[in-house]
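Progress narrative, work stream C.
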Amino acid sequence: MRSYIGIDPGSSSGCIACITPYKDDPIKATIEFSKYTTKEWLEELRDLSTENDCIAVLEKVHGMPGMNVSAVSSFMKNVGHIEMALLALNIPFFEVYPQSWLKYYGLKKDKDESKTDWKRRLREHLSRIMPDFKATNDTADAMLIAHYCKMHYDKL
């Protein structure tokens, strides 16, 4: 069986989400970076990859205007850790720009929309796709990316 992994690499609110199909009852799990050390989330990912055939989508990101040097450095370090973990665990992955996976769902952030309102809309959209998954602001993006992964890379 195949597991689908979605990764939102945000340095503080980032998350790894996984959809693991076991018969008719898929398990949907998340690993929030703010709640795990790098070693701990690596171990969680290792356990997942040894039990299942995995494929991942990593959100392709870069520093944003207004981020200070320290924040960009921390953010990109996190991305490097994620990429190395996927490579070391032999988990094939694709990098996808946020615009691509958001377009798939017909979502676009409005110019004047607050981050809180935007995250609420993402959670609401996810609840329509996976009503039994209780998303938070920190898990919704990653689980939507995992679902995108399942829908786009299932046949590989």
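Work stream C, second folded protein:
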Amino acid sequence: MANHPSAEKRNRQRITRTARNRAIKSSLKSTLKKARSAIESGEANAKELVLSAERALARAASKTAAKAR
């Protein structure tokens, strides 16, 4: 349990960031899985799915807390 106000704030920030990162990673994994399966099966819309996966990767890189500062 945090004993200082700054430690309590850091804990609140950690919870928020963890939830955000978990949601972003989950949706990213789903998007990548759809794109990979479309490529393997040779679907007609594979190119669109790959482009959406590329956009999702860029978006995830800009939104995660683990980015380089």
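Helices lie at 5-41, 46-63. No further action is required on this item.
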